[in-house]
Amino acid sequence: MASSGSGYDLSAATFSPDGRIFQVEYAGKAVENAGTVIGIHAKDGVVLGVAKPLYHKMIVPTTASYKRIHTVDVHAGVATTGFLPDARVLVGRAQEEAADWQEHYGSKVPPHVLADRLGHYVHYFTLHGALRPFGASCVLGGYDVDTKECGLYMLEPNGAAYKYYGVATGKGKQVAKTELEKLNLHKQDAESSMDVATAVKNVAKILILLHKENKDSDGKPMELELSWICEASKWKHAPIPKDVLTAAKEWANEQLEEEDEDDEEEEEAMEEG
Amino acid sequence: MSEFTRPMEGATEIPPAGFNFENVSRNARLMEAWTNAKEQAEAMRKHHAQHGMDVAPMMAGGGYPNHMPLAKKTGTTIAGIVFKGGVVLGADTRATNGDEVAEKNCRKIHYVADNMYCCGAGTAADTDQTTALVASQLELLRMDLHLPHATSLRMKTAVTRISRLLFRYQGHVSAALILGGVDKAEGAQLYSIHPHGSSMRFAYTAMGSGSLAAISVLESAWEPDMEEADAVTLVQRAITAGIFNDLGSGSNCDICVIKNDGAVDYQRPSLTPNNTAPFRAAITRSSRMDMKPGTTPILDSKFVPHKGATLADVTVTEMEVS
Amino acid sequence: MMSASHSSMVNPMSSNPYGLKEGEVSTGTTILAMPFDGGVMLGADTRTSMGSYATSRSTDKITFLSDHIFCLRSGSAADTQAISDIVKHYLSHLTIETGREPLVKTAAHLMKNIVYSNKDSLSAGVIIAGWDPVEGGQVFNVVQGGSCLKQSFALGGSGSLFIYGLMDSEFKEGMTQDEARALVKKAISHAMARDGSSGGMVRTMTVTAEGNKRDVTPGNELPFGPVF
């Protein structure tokens, strides 16, 4: 890397002459090499999803010990990626912020405030030479109890906390983003037409697609962890029920097979043509 | 710990700034001890009397005082009104110490800022210190904000500073204040601030032990949009009512007029209804009471020069400067 | 059962119902707030006293907290002014951080926390009333000692004792704005007639989504009183 050896990458407190902070960029790399996280803001809720490669045969594939989606408060949850111990610190902070808010104000923290506060927290770690930035990123989904609206945010290692219609981060973020854009979530009318049920299927589909496309992971075991906030979950952050998840996976696999066949046909047609 | 925080050896310790209440509990214990001692002395006196002994040399109560030395409280009449052209503040000038008049011409209308003055009742030291402290804060604020005109300083700021200070001391700082002045934001304003830190805005108000006398004058004659001369006369009447009807108030009447353009007319004294000089002058005494020079004869006189060092005995050496 | 007045400092029948320190200014008071169809109505007398002397006869006890939330103060004037300033400060920060109007329950929660954690040094009985887009017009009573009660209507101050019966008999859910204002004025006038430390004028404040409206009724135009 061009930056290494220059001396400008030794601390997050130092800018390079062209105005970059390499330590923060390296933290971003930690996220780019880790599992994919996807979030969709549907018209009637939010969906969070992660694909968890089971690194070792002997890992017990349950969500309890190897959790990547955490509940922050009844109405908010985060899906994490990157250096997981770092992510767990972020989750802890988010839980603390939510609890403190309730203690102080006697109401639920609005998702945009929670995202903003986490952003401030993460950013603080990019200011001091004695601190290491977070090698983790997280996607925050929340329900605003006062306005009865959902919100989806992504926190980056540099402290940015933007709001999204649909977002992906981690190893497969490029492919996932292209797939998300195809869903036209960002077009107002289209956004209002996608419901959570469809969003769940699409999150599953994209995650499975990424797993299959990756030469390193194809064929190896993988677990999908999905959660949502919607009417069906009584506007609480909850794991997606097993039957819904199974149905989504089946639908995703069928879709992907169909698309494969279509592609093959197209290729054949091209060759013939 | 940084080296900067280590106290220098041998340096005199600077006492902490602000009000100090460290003697409050000591004084309470002292009072308790005195009360006990007094009771004992009284019992002893009774015992002696019962057994026919001489009690004349024994003081009643053993000579212990009945109370701690008290701070000087200004039994006071202060008042203020809003008129068409600004604000008029008024105050009497008596300071008392118990039943005694401690000062016949004391200043009770304090400077707070060029556009604000403040009448104080309560403990003289507390009203002096409180207004001086806030005056300093406001001047620093004015310089910090680069305000060209004094009227850019807000009355609201002064009221907030004062009432926060008084609230912090929970009524132990006995300052009952009437703050009057003008600012660009809200024009002429008048506030009363009580020792516990509550504040209220008024068109006319009075405070201090003579406030009942003063307020009855204001209640009967105040009206909106008065002319300056009428307003000053009204406040003079209110303060005079306090001076003559309240034992804690007396002597002269000071007046401070703050006009809408920020101009101040501080009249001290504005009225001297208790000027005794003419009465003293009117007393005619027999010329035989006068002592003429030479009444006491000089029998002898002698001059003895001082034996101490004189300048001529001192050798002055030039200071080493290179 | 929640008990509002277990604090030994409070004895409404004594001549010093708030346990004030000597020389402390009190809003010996009648305050009253009730929701109506579309908002909330607040009302208060205007007397402020120090012992038997009325320090002010035109006090405004309806105190601004945020655009749609107000509080009614009773007890020590210094204490209630200080704590409502603090709550006002918190709410303005909250408004900036969240980008929306604060909830009435949040204002009450903040007030309760302050009153409770300083219960030994405060004499304050505060009614928080206001409107928010989530729950509409609401009324909370933060009493001496620091408990916070959501009520269908709230009474406070030394004069409230005289009008509980009146309010119990005349208050109805879903009144119109005019009915609510008339009842508030009537109730406070009755309290002022019987309570020595309530008096002066009746101030009311109407808080609705559309905005707030103040109203003052002079002492000689009250719907009731004085009694001789």
Automatic annotation (TrEMBL), chain A:
Residues 254-273 are annotated as: Disordered. Residues 8-30 form the Proteasome alpha-type subunits domain. GO terms for cellular component: cytoplasm; nucleus; proteasome core complex, alpha-subunit complex. Keywords: Cytoplasm, Nucleus, Proteasome. GO terms for biological process: ubiquitin-dependent protein catabolic process. SMART domains: Proteasome_A_N (SM00948). It is found in: Cytoplasm; Nucleus. Residues 255-273 have a biased composition (Acidic residues). Signal peptide: none annotated. InterPro entries: Ntn_hydrolases_N, Proteasome_alpha, Proteasome_alpha-type, Proteasome_asu_N, Proteasome_sua/b. Belongs to the peptidase T1A family. The proteasome is a multicatalytic proteinase complex which is characterized by its ability to cleave peptides with Arg, Phe, Tyr, Leu, and Glu adjacent to the leaving group at neutral or slightly basic pH. The proteasome has an ATP-dependent proteolytic activity. This is Proteasome subunit alpha type-3. It comes from Seminavis robusta.
UniProtKB/TrEMBL annotation, chain B:
Its EC number is 3.4.25.1. It is an enzyme of class 3 (hydrolase). It holds the Pfam family Proteasome. Keywords: Cytoplasm, Hydrolase, Nucleus, Protease, Proteasome, Threonine protease. One of its GO terms (cellular component) is proteasome core complex. It comes from the Eukaryota. It is found in: Nucleus. GO terms for molecular function: threonine-type endopeptidase activity. The active site is at T76. Its main location: nucleus. GO terms for biological process: proteolysis involved in protein catabolic process. It catalyses: Cleavage of peptide bonds with very broad specificity. The keyword Nucleotide-binding does not apply. Coiled coil: none annotated. The keyword Phosphoprotein does not apply. PANTHER family: METALLOPROTEASE TLDD (PTHR32194), PROTEASOME SUBUNIT BETA TYPE-7 (PTHR32194:SF4). This is proteasome endopeptidase complex. It comes from Seminavis robusta.
TrEMBL record, chain C:
GO terms for molecular function: threonine-type endopeptidase activity. Signal peptide: none annotated. Keywords: Cytoplasm, Hydrolase, Nucleus, Protease, Proteasome, Threonine protease. The active site is at T29. It holds the Pfam family Proteasome. PANTHER family: ATP-DEPENDENT PROTEASE SUBUNIT HSLV, METALLOPROTEASE TLDD. Component of the proteasome, a multicatalytic proteinase complex which is characterized by its ability to cleave peptides with Arg, Phe, Tyr, Leu, and Glu adjacent to the leaving group at neutral or slightly basic pH. The proteasome has an ATP-dependent proteolytic activity. Component of the proteasome complex. Belongs to the peptidase T1B family. This is Proteasome subunit beta. It comes from Seminavis robusta. The lineage of its organism: Eukaryota, Sar, Stramenopiles, Ochrophyta, Bacillariophyta.
